[in-house]
Amino acid sequence: MDHVRAKLHANEIHRAGITGRGITAAVLDSGICRHPDYADRIAAFEDLINGRETCYDDASHGSHVSGILGGDGRSSRGKYRGIAPGCTLIHVKVLDHLGQGRLADILRGIDWVIANRDRFRIRILNISVGTTRGEDDEGSRLLVERVEEAWDCGLVVVAAAGNMGPDPMSITAPGNSRKVITVGSSTQFRYRQANVNANYSGCGPTQECVCKPELVVPGTDIVSCSSAWQQGRYYARKSGTSMSAPAVAGCAALLLEQEPWLSNVEVKMRLKEAAADIGLPQNRQGWGMPDLRKLLRL
User: Fold this and answer.
1) I want to staple 69 with a disulfide (CB 3.0 to 4.6 A). Which of 97, 172, 236, 246 is the partner?
2) pTM of the model
3) How far is CA 31 from CA 42, 60, 74, 84, 196, in A?
4) Number of domains in the chain
5) CA 45/CA 59 separation, integer angstroms
6) Is residue 271, in this structure, part of any structural domain at all?
């Protein structure tokens, strides 16, 4: 979260008192631990894998994603703060202890968020999971249909572009949906032993010739919350577009705190207007990287 925060100017925004307070974001992932950086803002936890009622994360992926979106950094004295450190979090566990999931559970997770959006006043759905199969696969089509149903219900749906890049048409489902906000990584992965940089972020266009992703933010070596915090390991580094998506979901939470009347389409257009070209090919960066100062008109 350290260099993500620097790129998006989030520190300045937080000092201005804009933290995503009053905005609820749902996360579909591997679970969420009761990390001190956001434990008091977890409004609900639904476990579709093991049926447990108390928060846990046996893969640590979901806790990391949640920290990027809404961690307040208290365990690091503010150093590793998420983009929207005042937002409320809902977590639906759809991935197992290996960070893998079944299509049926992911679809059930989206259904749960749709069914409970009014009860918990959910405005944002972050999906840092997806299929590795082609867009023409039946499961991929079902996943896209379901996230578009969530979008049509008014939710701001943010999805990872996937890590199958950098070839064209490598966006994974549900990020290939024309409606949702798809986020790639602006940074490469460094194979230090081989002295090689690798572009992994999914690139557009989709098979339907839709320009994707919409936005990019850093996704490599991102420091965020760890489920091992009780053993003193409060933070960990992870890489992938899974880490990029929640940063943009956090941007949406900040915008909605300021202007809660905005529709999901209006949020998407405001993100487009506030995106800065960072010099990458369009099929990799889309509109570019969000500038929070411009997004929030500060």
Assistant:
1) 246
2) 0.95
3) 12, 7, 21, 19, 33
4) 1
5) 16
6) yes
Please state, in angstroms and rounded to a whole number, the distance separating the CA atoms of residues 117 and 129: 20
- Rounded CA Rg of the chain: 17
Q: Which residue has the tokens 């300045």?
A: 12
Residue 298 lies in a domain: no
Summarised one tens digit per residue, pLDDT across range 74-102 is: 999 999 999 999 999 999 999 999 999 99
Question: 213: cis peptide before it, omega within 30°?
Answer: yes
Q: Is residue 265 situated within a structural domain?
A: yes
pLDDT digits (tens, 9 = 90+) for 27-45: 999 999 999 999 999 999 9
Residue 117 corresponds to which amino acid?
R
CB-based contact 290:271 (threshold 8 Å): yes
CA atoms within 13 A on the CB side of 26: 28
Q: Check: CB of residue 71 under 8 Å from CB of residue 225.
A: yes
| Crossing angle of helices 264-273 and 241-258, rounded to 10° | 110
Asked whether residue 81 is domain-assigned, the answer is yes
Residue 225 domain boundaries: 2-291
Give the relative orientation of helices 103-115 and 138-152 as an angle to the nearest 10 degrees: 10
CATH code at position 242: 3.40.50.200
Phi/psi of residue 144, each to 5°? -65, -45
Enumerate the active-site residues.
29, 61, 242
Ramachandran sector of residue 9 (left: φ over 0; alpha: ψ -120 to 50; beta: rest): left
